[in-house]
Specification:
The complex is a heterodimer. Chain A contains twelve helices and no strands. Chain A is mostly helical. Chain A has one domain. The radius of gyration of chain A is 19 Å and the shape is globular. In chain A, about 50% of the residues are buried. The model of chain A has no long low-confidence stretch (mean pLDDT about 90). By secondary structure, chain B is mainly alpha-helical. Helix content of chain B is about 80%, strand content about 0%. Chain B is rod-shaped and about 50 Å long. The N terminus of chain B is likely disordered. Classes of the chains: A mainly alpha, B mainly alpha.
């Protein structure tokens, strides 16, 4: 068995998160296309797009708020590299993952407002609006705390090894977290910050390398959201089972996305808040009985 | 008159781009040096976390700024010129 030092471990995990996340995004598009009777792009298309944007001609809009416009893309990468360290590398606290997710909403908001584009600004407003629904969904972590008595990922994994996966004991919390993951998927019914009615939302005015840079972070984010779900609700898995779990979850998300329209912001928020209320109240009832 | 203003803007844009390139090379070299240091010398964990969180994103961004393609010099004038031509 090869033992890596901490830096090599972090680099390897970030690289795996980026590659797996990119391929899963490609797989999602492929499955969506096949359901809609289209051939669809190759599975590695998202990865190729990400790399391609780095060598494309880049320009910065005159309306952009420099250097904030560039710095905010670095911010997204910083928070998801941090998530990889807190998650697979150190199995640290779920509270930090929650904080990172909250920062992700702030990045969406500020990336939109810093570009000067009206589409970006509309997306920025929607990012705040959607946070009102997505953050309560992420509050599912509190239910996990009530069930396990800890916020440490390593200890939650150990507890599940003894008493079985949490998905059986707090299924509504798992469902809430799944809705949160769904809301972050491209073309999802809840993806109001990047809905096609506002072009690419907060990313509309980030061209060339900055778009590629944002796509790297988003791939890592997708991998991490799936990793947190599998680790917290099913337990510590081998790398192969993590991969199988992520493919299955991405396929389910693709099926939902392919067969549902993007909801308008009001409906999206109301639906997610309804899920959150049912999930939180239902989980506490299940915990009491 | 208009031509002078336009050439001034183009010149300024060129200078900004050059500064950006120099800064990008500097950040890229520092980032790679930091990562290599953490790989070879096993500093305390908190130092490795700080290096990872700052230098991995900075390294990717600066690499992108170095390798990104730029439009031809002739096009810069069209990009910076205001479409409004006045009454």
């Amino acid at each position: 068995m090869i033992i890596l030092n901490l830096m090599a471990n972090i680099l390897l995990n970030v690289l795996v998160a980026f590659l797996v996340g990119s391929v899963l995004f490609g797989l999602q598009r492929k499955i969506m296309a096949r359901i809609q009777m289209r051939p669809g792009p190759p599975i590695i298309q998202h990865l190729l797009h990400t790399l391609k944007f780095f060598i494309k001609e880049s320009s910065f809009p005159q309306t952009a708020a420099m250097p904030f416009y560039i710095a905010i893309t670095a911010m997204l990468c910083v928070i998801w590299v941090s998530a990889v360290i807190v998650g697979p590398v150190t199995e640290g606290s779920l509270l930090l993952i929650f904080a990172i997710y909250a920062l992700h909403k702030i990045v969406e908001h500020n990336a939109g407002s810093s570009s000067g584009s009206p589409y970006g600004k509309l997306s920025c407003v929607r990012a705040v609006f959607s946070a009102a629904a997505e953050v309560p969904l992420f509050a599912v972590l509190i239910i996990i705390y009530f069930k396990t008595g800890t916020m440490n990922i390593g200890q939650i994994v150990s507890l599940q090894a003894v008493s079985g996966p949490l998905i059986y004991s707090i299924p509504l919390a798992a469902a809430m977290f799944f809705v949160l993951i769904l809301s972050k998927a491209p073309y999802s019914p809840f993806a109001i910050t990047k809905g096609k009615d506002i072009i690419s939302g907060y990313e509309t005015e980030h061209f060339g390398l900055l778009r590629g840079y944002l796509m790297i972070s988003e791939s890592i984010a997708w991998y991490m959201l799936l990793w947190v779900f599998l680790t917290v609700f099913i337990g510590g898995l081998s790398p192969l089972w993590y991969l199988v779990g992520m493919v299955v979850m991405s396929a389910i998300v693709a099926l939902i996305n392919a067969t549902t329209p993007i909801l308008n912001p009001n409906h999206s928020i109301m639906m997610q808040v309804s899920f959150a209320i049912i999930g939180i109240v239902g989980s506490f009832v299940l915990l009491l009985y | 008159m208009n031509n002078k203003i336009i050439s001034g803007i183009t010149h300024q844009t060129g200078e900004i781009m050059d500064k950006l390139k120099v800064a990008s090379y500097l950040i890229f070299i520092i980032s790679i040096a930091g990562i290599v240091y953490a790989l070879l010398f096993n500093p305390p964990n908190w130092v490795v976390y700080a290096i990872s969180i700052i230098f991995i994103p900075a390294g990717i961004l600066s690499f992108g700024l170095i390798v990104m393609a730029r439009g031809p010099k002739d096009d810069e004038e069209d990009k910076t010129r205001e479409p409004f031509i006045g009454y």
